[in-house]
Design goal:
The protein is α/β, with parallel strands linked by helices and about 400 residues long. It folds into three domains: about 100 residues, Roll (Chitinase A, domain 3), CATH 3.10.50; about 60 residues, no CATH class; about 200 residues, Rossmann fold. It is built from eight helices and 15 strands. An eleven-stranded mixed beta sheet has the order 3-8-1-2-14-15-13-12-9-10-11, sandwiched between helices. Strands 4-7-6-5 form a four-stranded antiparallel beta sheet, with no helix packed on it. Helix 6 crosses helix 8. Pfam families: Methyltransf_11.
Length: about 400
């Protein structure tokens, strides 16, 4: 048995949890875990420090055992005038129920300064008052944390450095995708579905773009998700697709259909058996019969829909009973065509917004999986600008059987 505290460990951390009947998993790749200074619960640390490469350490924590338990004292009213709507230059920020905002947006509270970007949540809005929640976003949930030790690397001599509470870091961000008290978050009021470029999408996409919008590692993660959730010898629709479907090559499907906006891109997609060109923002009626597909996938494109609830209703119509709809999202998009709210949200709020599409449309057995922290692949055009691979968030649900 090796004492891994004398090494830097490469670890994949996973947190599994449930909120209001929705199952979540959040994975974070830690390329340099320093057990000499990084923070873990003592019982978890004791198991981890005496583990070998390939081992998995797992522990369940009830709410309040590690993450500070929800405390009503951390919710309080502020006057509407204390919410600085001009916090960001040239923009007006309106408080909305269930949304997260940086604490620095609040004026007149001791020890809260303008450069404080830690998120808090708005949980009530009255005529002249706003109810805010300063609790940890994960404070109401039980969770199972696991750590898989992938590799050990010798430490270099070091003096000082930062320490991280990895469980707290992953959990804090993950908690922002869940509803507050199972009440719908206000993502959709106002001009949420406006876009900078309101011209016809068919014009914007009239010429082909044979580019990958996410890096190679992120594409592998999407393919691995599809390999787990999709079944062989089934009918698949690649919805809002392009020249690359990210489907796993090892699975043989019965039929793969594509629906997208550019015929040249679709014709170059080697996995498609057939395809249709359609501008979904002009015509939300999908050109397929009821109960046509076992599975439908939508890869890093959902942020362009201005009529998502009409589309999700159509998805349910053309799915077979028990069929699955999988949406994957990341942090890259075409800004002129992405809806306004998408660009205003924090990363995990975007997951929460897609969850609202699924919940309010009537999908069952809804799940999410987030994968972050992996190193950016060498040779990627952003390799020298960004350390991490593009994050992948998958949200999926099923049609009632």
């Amino acid at each position: 048995m090796i004492d891994i505290s004398s090494y830097n460990a490469v670890v994949e951390l996973s947190i599994k949890w449930k909120a209001y009947d929705i199952s979540h998993e959040d994975r974070y790749f830690i390329s340099k875990l320093n057990l000499w200074r990084d923070i873990f619960p003592k019982d978890f640390y004791d198991k981890l420090v005496n583990s070998d490469v390939g081992s998995v350490v797992e522990k369940e924590y009830l709410k309040g055992e590690y993450i500070e338990k929800y405390d009503s004292k951390n919710t309080f009213y502020i006057n509407c005038s204390q919410f600085n709507k001009k916090f960001i230059k040239d923009r007006i920020i309106e408080p909305k129920f269930g949304r997260f905002y940086p604490k620095g947006i609040i004026e007149g509270i001791s020890n809260i300064f303008k450069d404080n970007f830690e998120p808090f949540r708005v949980i009530g809005i009255e005529r002249d008052k706003i109810l805010v929640d300063f609790n940890h976003p994960f404070s109401n949930y039980n969770f199972i944390v696991s750590a898989k030790i992938i590799n050990l690397r010798p430490k270099n001599p070091e003096i000082g450095g930062s320490c991280f509470d990895w469980i707290d870091k992953v959990a804090f961000e993950a908690g922002m995708k869940a509803r507050w008290n199972n009440m719908p978050t206000d993502f959709f009021s106002g001009d949420s579905f406006k876009r900078d470029d309101e011209s016809e999408d068919s014009l914007f996409y009239s010429f082909p773009r044979f580019v990958n919008h996410i890096d190679a590692t992120a594409m592998e993660h999407i393919s691995s998700i599809y390999s787990v959730l999709l079944k062989p010898d089934t009918d698949i629709l690649d919805f809002m697709c392009s020249w690359n479907s990210h489907l796993p090559g090892k699975i043989k499907f019965k039929r793969v259909s594509g629906l997208g906006l550019n015929e040249q891109e679709l014709s170059k997609n080697k996995v498609l058996d057939d395809w249709i060109v359609q501008d979904l923002n002009s015509n939300s009626t999908l050109p397929y019969d009821d109960n046509s597909f076992d599975s439908i996938i939508c890869t890093v494109s959902i942020e362009y829909l201005v009529n998502p609830f009409e589309i999700f209703s159509e998805i349910l119509r053309i799915l077979k009973p028990g069929g699955i709809f999988i949406v994957t999202i990341s942090n890259r998009w075409f800004p002129p065509k992405a809806i306004k709210i998408w660009q205003d949200l924090l990363e995990f709020e975007r997951v929460g917004m897609v969850l609202e599409y699924f919940i309010q449309s009537g999908f069952r057995n809804i799940n999410t999986l987030s994968i972050r922290g992996y190193p950016r692949p060498e040779g990627d055009k952003y390799f020298f600008k960004e350390n991490f691979s593009d994050p992948i968030h998958a949200i999926w649900g099923f049609k009632k059987n």
